[in-house]
Write a structure and sequence with these properties.
With about 110 residues, this protein is an all-alpha fold. The protein has one domain: Cytochrome c-like domain (Cytochrome Bc1 Complex, Chain D, domain 2). The protein has six helices and no strands. It binds heme C. Heme C binds near residues 43, 57 and 93.
Length: about 110
């Protein structure tokens, strides 16, 4: 009886392992590095924004209220040009990013949200 329940417990643990791996937490430090390599040209260091180039992301509605997933999706899509920002935002900021890169960057942005 005792042995069987221990075995059941062990197999439940093993079954849960792949889920844990798939949902690995985004890496904020990596996200910061990527942001500083790509996004600063329009959003500046610390995401404070630049007139005519990119908005202040610290107070941006999506960064404040959106999930990491929603922000990652925006990064992949970018934004069409507007009157205020005539260059718009190219998908992935003009680079090519993986899903993990976007999640890392989104998690980093969440740490800056005010
Ligand atoms: C060529 C300039 C440019 C680059 C490069 C750029 N962005 Fe943007 N980004 C913009 C502009 C412009 C907007 C605002 C669009 C609008 O709403 O008018 C924006 C908006 C955003 C928003 C949406 C905020 C909100 O609340 O709507 C996020 C998030 C964002 N950028 C993240 C990034 C990240 C992360 C990178 C780097 C991978 C990046 N951007 C690179 C120009 C840029």
């Amino acid at each position: 009886m005792k042995l069987r329940s221990r075995a059941a417990h062990a197999s439940a643990l093993v079954a849960a392992l792949p889920l844990v791996a798939a949902a690995a937490a985004p890496d904020v430090a990596k996200g910061k590095k990527k942001f500083e390599g790509i996004c600063v040209q329009c959003h500046r260091a610390d995401a404070e924004g630049m007139p005519g180039m990119g908005m202040d992301l610290r107070t941006a509605p999506l960064v404040r209220a959106g999930s990491v997933g929603a922000i990652a999706k925006f990064i992949a899509t970018g934004h069409t040009p507007t009157e205020k920002f005539p260059l718009g935002m190219p998908p992935d900021g003009g680079e090519s990013l993986s899903d993990a890169d976007r999640a890392d960057i989104a998690a980093y942005l969440k740490t800056l949200a005010e």
